[in-house]
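Q: Study each token:
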Amino acid sequence: MITERIDGVTGIPTDYLRTICPPPRAIKVSLSDACQFQCGFCARKDGESAGPMPWPMYRKLVDEMVAEGIDEIGLFYIGEPMLAKDLVKAVKYAKDSGISYAFLTTNGALANKAKVESLMEAGLDSLKFSFNYADGLQLKQVANVSPSNFDKIIQNIKDAREVRDHFGYKCGIYASSIMLDGEQGKKMQAAVERIKPYVDEHYWLPLYSFGGQTEFGKPVRGNPGRLDRMREPLPCWAVFTEGHVTSAGDVSLCCFDSHHRWVVGNLAEVSFMEAFNSAEAQLLRTAHLNKDVSGTACSFCAVGS
């Protein structure tokens, strides 16, 4: 199940608790940093969007992943993956190259039946819907898109399950939601009940700080993982066990780096592993291992000041 994979990354295995790390368990890569939603709680809000990732850069990254034994790729990082024109092609290339697990997370509005079928046929192993709105009105207020997208998202989740089951594709279908309290929490729980019959697993997330974003409620510090298995903010797993690459080829040590504060190299200049274990990366990991990130880009997110 998806939560077992998440816990395997956020738990930080002992052999990753060092300044120079082994190849990460997985790499998330943006083929496009664009998104049609403008959610106030998202790390991408007010961030810059580069153009699509050049295909040769993506191919080189996948080839390096295979050579380094990194066998999980997330075809999303910043932005909405369904906007990327090479998404299906990227899944197929990764799977044909020997990547064992290709996954992505989507807001769901563009995940129509035809697109989902093509992704599953290409070999997608996991499709997760980020389901964070109780109804169409709230979707409009938070994401600044038409309320009709809410019903479209629910229908797309149902259609994804139908496609998977009808054709027998081996793709997990999942959903996650941010847990809030009060009346909003009750509304969200009711909305989640509408999609639960169509997903293999649903899990709740705390309201992350998103690298310092504080506009949507009162977020917890850092990224503690899912609600049922939260961990301390320091050391942060994103600095040690997971890779992140923007569509411009920037390698980042943060899972929410839409503002390029944690960039440690660019794939146009160095290999992924050279960036991942660069001098800058080692300094940041040292701060995390010492549990003192004052003066670093992680200070506000992990400490709150």
